[in-house]
Design a protein that fits this description.
heterotrimer, A: mainly alpha, 2 domains, three-stranded antiparallel β-sheet, two-stranded antiparallel sheet, 6 helices, C: mainly alpha, two-stranded antiparallel ribbon, 19 helices
Chain lengths: ~190, ~700, ~575
């Protein structure tokens, strides 16, 4: 009987402590010290939320840089991956299809399609593309936006600004944040209406 | 039993063992060994499949061969066990001949009655005379006799057994050579020492030892999980569109389960017991043998073990103004009638040092004064014609002589006291000699340590065993002998209680203690010790209390016992390691064979998993068959090792482990690669597949 | 592999080796009740807890009572987690108005979290309310990790104590584990993660209006607090469905590094603590050597395999199921760490790993989660193999096997083998049935050898309490939810109870002083033998299955076959 009370009361205490006070305390600290980050590093246009700097969103218009393929079609609820294995016929078909489509849409570009644009990310929300993938799309974006030759340099510099290097030069891998890049495009060259 | 080594090549033994190998195929016998039982079921299943296919005119030579080799695997294992048992049985037969079937003379009240030996009960009293065979174990309660114990010990020299003291035990089946003794029977018929030896040898009483049980659990667990692995392999193979037939699956299973150790496990145990019996030690249980391998501390009686058992005179030390020769002469006179080894050694020393011939003293001229516990001295009174005492010569304990001389108005010279102390300090015993009112000097008696004993103790130390000497001597003497003999520690002035206490203390600290002893007062300690080795010459009580009896009554036998115990475990461990290590090669032989055609591309000969076929065996069938044949033959090849035991050298544990790991672990990994490949070459050559 | 990848791994190992003795000696102090620098803060709390719960911290339990207490607490945890899930729509902190969780899924999830498996048959963001995430799952993350450590403590006491039945007080071990170790570490880690952009709030989900004028629903929630403990406590149950691949859960290179470090931190430090408590540091370092050796071997194969081109798909690098900011090296390294420790969190989709990397991940789980392994459970699992090794070695040197002076008898060996075999048998039976019955094959996302791998991975993960998945396999069916739940129970308690029983019987014995002939478990010979026993006994069972799954797929990938 005593054992049951001990189990019950201890469990109740720990539920309060680790299930309630601990997350609330961390939330409180987050509000104070990391307010913006703890709310999802949102990018806002005045009051309107455009998206999160951490989350990829769907871009299919030629005027924008396109992110990596998403198995969940950029739906963040729930996120998801294709979970196709290394000998998957379906995956092979997807890759081939994407390669063909990208080639068709970048007909001026003779280089191979960068592989990160062929394969879906783990979360379906990968905010980055590789530097090569951005370069690959550069010409197409410039063309769609009818950018003149002198603006190309500007475009190149926007791309470099949107690039995330390894943190402290060591941690993680480099990539170009697509949403940040596209937003910078809009801000610099004007928002494209359909 | 000495010199009765049954040769490994004894052909009749072979034939008999082969016979019983087949008899042991009975399921009731097989189920005792789970690993081999699984093999047995597999062999049965394969055979049934072979016959059912044959009935439908699909004769499969492959199935036939697999079935046959599976049966061979079991028969080889049974043969190993039968062979181990057979060697013991031959000895048991010899011993049985000594059992008494004839009449014996039982004492009922004051009368004698002729009864059948087999009708004797515990507590009965019988009389044995010259030529009689002693009907059962017992204790001499009257008389003294010389007895031929060769039937049990193999030693042809007769031994003396007498009532009272430590030599009163007689064993059923031994023979009285001279004189007459009255014996109280101490064992029921069927429970005598001889019966027990026979039972042990015949394995009627064989129980599994703790380590054997633990090992069996390991083997069972491996068998269960591999059984599951084999069953599910069929399902996984089906998923991968691979055809795996039942015989192939069974072949894989039998190769993977530890049949090598499973098949030889009981043979190893029996052979271990057998080896001990060959060393003339009877262990009352296998547990005791195993415990012997774990011994940390060995308690040894000093007398007769470490020292020759008798103190010898080594020097005469004369008192001031006394000639040494004078002392020697008096000492010799005092010892002439002293038949103890000490007394004799004094006579001899006097003769050697001063060429003193022992004068024959006529009884009229002298009167011997025997040693008594009250006076603690002995000697002789030289008489005049009239019977007046002319000379009163005594030798004895220093303080007793001191009391005597002071009583007679003399004194004990202080110079002599120095010598006495020196002798005591060196571990010797001083014996003072007194001749008519004055002390002539002291005799230095010394315990002589047996030759070679120091080396034996060093060997024990290497095995991690500490030796502790037990002695009734005073601490000073004990310390000196301990140092000379090279024991690690000693207990001086030991009593039965202090021995028992010492054992209990050590056991409480977690040590395993062995003890050798022979006297009745050793019995409690022998019973308390984890391994109690009683001398066969000892009392019945001692033999009952210990869990081993050394028929040779050799105190250093314990080293052999420890070695046998260790060897037993090592053999099991080595073969287990070997058996499990074998699996790697067997997987590499069988799996590529089974999976060879998985996901094969049209037009190709071999599927992608053929890349695992590093042994490049001839065909899938030959690969599987070779593995099965190897698995069966390895049992035969390892029988000698199982019976002989792996070699045990006294060295540190890590050196031993490294050595055994290299031989049986690494060997176990590589040998089957070579073996299976060779068999593959052979069976392909003679077109078995 | 790139030089920057090697640098990151180098820093990882150095930092792990640096933190191991620090945390290890701290934990050793905590669990013997000695004063630590946090005592002034926590010991009043601790005393208050004991007073409230009527616990006498000096009163110790025998192994049976300890096991009963453990069962009671686990049972309460199960009930709470289960009922909170199936009633979440009625409860507060459910801004998305998520419906009640179905019974079978709730059952599976409750067992999964209370057994430290944290297998997720659901996606957190679309299934569970904030309240359930906090009050049910976060609590279980703490309690199950502390429970594993407690069971390890019992085994250590069993080894070190002589002739006693007293093996410590479960409530005290649990309280100290949470209060002094897990909670402070979690708070520190939460803050570090917050600084990298992991979210932590109670707001409703946010609808974003994208640049192209579409709507995107961004999930929110108290993620950082849960992620900290799920990484530290070898739990692995992510706040979001894709776990630490989700940018909100693992936004940067540094957050990835920290989370990966957290996976091995406590299991690694526990080995050091073990050495201190046993007063046999050399022995502990040998175990550490074996652990990190096998881990390094597996991780190397995984890294190597991940950098191989995939001719079947016609790509040079398999980026499917990986995040760019994390990259291949860190994905493979994480996969190695998370399957070595029974963590089970992922930052890349294991289903899409290269065949041999996936195979090695499986292999590490199938060894029984002992290479680092779970909090506490990893080391006690490893010690089972140590006992088996000592048994073999003891026989080979001709002495009744003894470990730290304690003789190993039939009873201990029986328990050791039960604990080693139970998860393996569960995997084989489960995987066998999944294939033999049509229900199993319907859940496959991939065909061919990869399908077999999916099934094997699923059962290997559940029965060894890992929790990661070849996530293409649809385990969210009623039958899989229930059967995998049972497998997780077996994997947890068919190991933990025998361990407690072994502790109980070892504690009753008197340790023999060591001598020359006793087998010493602190040299290289021992380490080599231990590795062999782990690899042979642990892997023997699964060689055929692994050959037909990942190994076969590897060859087929190179011959460009697709399924």
């Amino acid at each position: 009987m005593k054992l049951i009370w001990q189990a019950f009361s201890l469990f109740a205490l720990f539920t309060c402590l680790t299930g309630f006070f601990y997350p609330l305390a961390v939330t409180g600290l987050a509000q104070v010290f990391f307010n913006e980050k703890s709310h999802g590093s949102l990018i806002k246009d005045e009051d309107k939320v455009i998206g999160s700097a951490l989350i990829a969103q769907k871009f299919s218009r030629p005027q924008y840089f396109w992110p990596r393929p998403s198995a969940s079609d950029f739906g963040a609820n729930p996120s998801g991956a294709s979970n196709q294995g290394p000998t998957s016929r379906k995956l092979k078909a997807d890759i081939d299809k994407r390669r063909e489509e990208l080639k068709a849409k970048h007909d001026l570009n003779l280089s191979e399609v960068p592989e990160d644009l062929l394969m879906a990310s783990a979360s379906g929300l990968d905010p980055h593309i590789s530097f090569a993938a951005a370069q690959f799309q550069l010409q197409r974006v410039a063309q769609a936006r009818s950018l003149k030759q002198e603006s190309m340099l500007k475009l190149q510099s926007l791309l470099e600004q949107a690039a995330d290097d390894r943190q402290w030069g060591v941690f993680g891998e480099p990539g170009v944040n697509v949403l940040r890049l596209n937003r910078a495009l809009d801000e610099t060259f004007g928002k494209m209406e359909k | 039993m000495k010199n009765k080594n049954t040769s490994l090549l004894d052909s009749s033994l072979y034939m008999e063992s082969i016979g019983s190998a087949f008899k042991k195929l009975h399921p009731a016998a097989m189920i005792k060994n789970p690993v081999m039982f699984v093999t047995w079921v597999g062999a049965g299943l394969t055979t049934c499949l072979f016959f059912s296919h044959w009935m439908f005119f699909k004769f499969s030579a492959f199935e036939l061969q697999i079935s046959l080799w599976l049966w061979f695997t079991i028969i080889f294992a049974n043969f190993a066990e039968a062979l181990a048992e057979g060697r013991g049985k031959a000895q048991a037969e010899g011993l049985k001949k000594n059992r008494v079937q004839a009449f014996t003379r039982k004492v009922v009240g004051k009368l004698e009655e002729k009864v059948l030996a087999t009708s004797l009960k515990k507590g009965d009293v019988v009389i044995c005379e010259t030529g009689d065979t002693i009907p059962s174990d017992g204790e001499v309660i009257e008389g003294i006799a010389s007895i031929d114990e060769s039937a049990i010990t193999g030693e042809s020299a007769p031994v003396i057994r007498e009532s009272g003291g430590d030599r009163s035990a007689v064993t059923g089946g031994t023979k009285v050579i001279s004189d007459r003794i009255v014996i109280r029977i101490t064992a029921e018929i069927g429970e005598t020492f001889l019966d027990r030896i026979i039972g042990l040898i015949e394995n009627a009483e064989r129980q599994k030892t703790p380590n054997e049980i633990a090992l069996t659990i390991v083997l069972c667990a491996l068998t269960i999980i591999l059984l599951l692995a084999a069953t599910t392999l069929k399902i996984f193979a089906d998923y991968s569109h691979i055809v795996v037939t039942i015989p192939v699956l069974i072949a894989l299973l039998v190769c993977l389960i530890p049949t090598t150790i499973g098949g030889l496990l009981s043979a190893i145990g029996i052979a271990g017991m057998d080896r001990l019996i060959r060393k003339n030690v009877i262990a009352k249980s296998g547990r005791a043998i195993e415990a012997a391998g774990d011994i940390d501390i060995l308690l040894i009686d000093k007398t007769g073990t470490i020292t020759l058992g008798n103190r010898m005179a080594v020097a005469f030390i004369a008192a001031p103004h006394i000639l040494e020769e004078e002392l020697a002469e008096a000492a010799q006179l005092a010892s002439l009638s002293d038949e103890t080894p000490e007394g004799r050694s004094i006579v001899v020393l006097a003769k050697e040092n001063f060429q003193l011939r022992a004068k024959t003293l006529r009884p009229i001229e002298s009167r011997f004064v025997p040693f008594s516990a009250q006076t603690r001295m002995s000697g002789v009174d030289v008489l005049l014609e009239n019977g007046q005492v002319e000379r009163e010569i005594r030798k004895g304990a220093v303080d007793a002589i001191k009391t005597l001389v002071i009583a007679k108005g003399g004194f004990f010279p202080s110079e002599l006291q120095v010598a006495v102390d020196e002798i005591g300090a060196s571990g010797g015993t001083p014996l003072a000699v007194f001749d008519n009112h004055k002390v002539l000097g002291v005799i230095h008696l010394k315990d002589v340590v047996k030759g070679g004993i120091k080396e034996r103790f060093a060997e024990l130390r290497k095995m991690g065993i500490r030796t502790i000497m037990i002695t009734g001597d005073n601490p000073m003497t004990a310390a000196a002998i301990a140092a000379e003999a090279g024991v690690d520690d000693f207990i001086a002035e030991a009593t039965p209680e202090s021995k028992l206490q010492k054992i209990r203390d050590d056991q409480r600290k977690g040590f395993l203690v062995a003890m050798t002893g022979d006297g009745t007062n050793d019995a409690p300690a022998l019973a308390q010790a984890d391994v109690g080795v009683a001398m066969n010459t000892g009392t019945q009580a001692a033999r009952e209390a210990g869990n081993m009896v050394d028929l040779d009554s050799s105190p250093t036998k314990v080293i052999d016992i420890v070695e046998t115990g260790k060897q037993l475990l090592m053999t099991r461990g080595a073969l287990t390691t070997f058996s499990i290590a074998n699996d790697l090669a067997k997987y590499f032989a069988i799996l590529p064979a089974i999976f060879m055609h998985a996901y094969i591309v049209d037009g190709e000969q071999r599927g992608p998993l053929a890349a695992l076929d590093i042994m490049s065996l001839y065909s899938p069938e030959s690969a599987i068959l070779s593995a099965v044949i190897f698995n069966a033959l390895i049992i035969v090849f390892l029988i000698p090792l199982a019976l002989r035991g792996v070699s045990c050298v006294a060295s540190s544990s890590s050196a031993l482990l490294r050595r055994n790991l290299l031989i049986y672990g690494l060997g176990g990994i590589f040998l089957p690669f070579v073996g299976i490949k060779l068999i593959d070459v052979v069976i392909t050559f003679i077109h078995l597949v | 592999m790139t030089s920057s990848g090697m640098l990151q791994i180098g820093i990882y190992i150095s930092l792990l080796l640096l933190l191991t003795p620090l945390l290890g000696s701290y934990m050793a102090k905590v669990f013997v009740g000695a004063r630590t620098f946090l005592s002034p803060l926590f010991s009043p709390c601790e005393r208050a807890i004991y007073r409230f719960c009527l616990i006498n911290p000096a009163e110790e339990m025998n192994w049976k009572k300890y096991a009963w207490s453990l069962v009671l607490l686990t049972g309460l945890g199960f009930l709470a987690t289960f009922f909170l899930q199936i009633n979440q729509s009625l409860l507060p902190l459910n801004p998305q108005h998520l419906p009640d969780v179905p019974y079978a899924l709730a059952f599976n999830t409750a067992i999964s979290f209370m057994t430290n498996t944290n297998w997720q048959a659901y996606s957190g963001e679309s299934t569970l309310s904030y309240l359930v995430q906090m009050l049910a799952l976060t609590v279980q993350n703490f309690v199950s990790a502390a429970m594993g450590i407690a069971a390890l403590l019992v085994l250590i006491r069993g080894i070190t104590r002589n002739k006693t039945h007293e093996l410590g007080n479960f409530w005290v071990d649990l309280t100290r584990g949470i209060l002094y170790v897990l909670l402070p570490l979690s708070i520190i880690f939460s803050l570090l993660l917050l600084s990298q952009g992991v979210i932590q709030n109670l707001s409703p989900y946010i609808t974003a209006h994208t640049l192209e004028g579409l709507e995107q629903l961004l999930p929110m929630g108290p993620a950082a607090s849960q992620i900290a403990i799920k990484q530290l406590g070898t739990n692995g149950g992510g706040f979001f469905g894709v776990n630490s691949a989700h940018p909100f859960e693992n936004p940067t290179g540094i957050s990835n590094f920290l989370e990966a470090l957290a996976i091995l931190l406590i299991p690694s430090a526990l080995i050091y603590m073990f050495g201190l408590m046993l007063n046999s540091r050399r022995h502990a370092w040998m175990i550490y050597l074996v652990t990190i050796g096998i881990f390094a071997l597996c991780a190397s194969v995984m890294l190597w395999s991940e950098y191989l081109p995939n001719p079947a798909l016609g790509v040079a690098q398999m980026l499917e199921g990986k995040e760019l900011r994390i990259g291949i090296t860190n994905s493979a390294w994480w996969a190695a760490a998370t399957t070595a420790a029974s963590n089970g969190s992922v930052n890349a989709m294991h289903d899409s790993l290269s065949p041999l990397a996936g195979g090695m991940a499986m292999f590490q789980m199938l060894l029984g989660e002992i290479i680092f392994g779970g909090a506490g459970s990893g080391l006690y699992g490893m010690l089972l193999f140590v006992l088996l090794t000592v048994f073999l070695a003891g026989l080979m040197v001709g002495r009744t096997p003894e470990y730290m002076g304690k003789k190993l008898g039939a009873r201990e060996i029986k328990m050791v083998l039960l604990a080693i075999i139970a998860p393996s048998a569960t995997v084989l039976i489960g995987a066998g049935l999944s294939i033999a019955l049509p229900a199993g094959l319907n859940s496959l996302a991939n065909q061919g050898p990869h399908g077999l791998s999916e099934i094997l991975y699923t059962w290997g993960s559940a029965a060894n309490n890992n929790g990661s998945a070849f996530a293409g396999f649809n385990a969210n069916t009623d039958s899989f939810n229930i059967f995998l739940g049972v497998a997780m129970l077996i994997g947890r308690f068919a190991v933990m109870f025998p361990v407690l029983a072994i502790a109980g019987s070892l504690a009753c014995k008197q340790a023999a002083p060591t001598s020359e002939t006793t087998f010493q478990a602190d040299n290289l010979t021992f380490a080599i033998l231990l590795v062999s026993v782990i690899l042979i006994i642990g892997a023997l069972t699964f060689i055929p299955a692994l050959a037909l799954g990942p190994v076969l797929e590897h060859f087929l990938m190179n011959t460009r076959q697709l399924f």
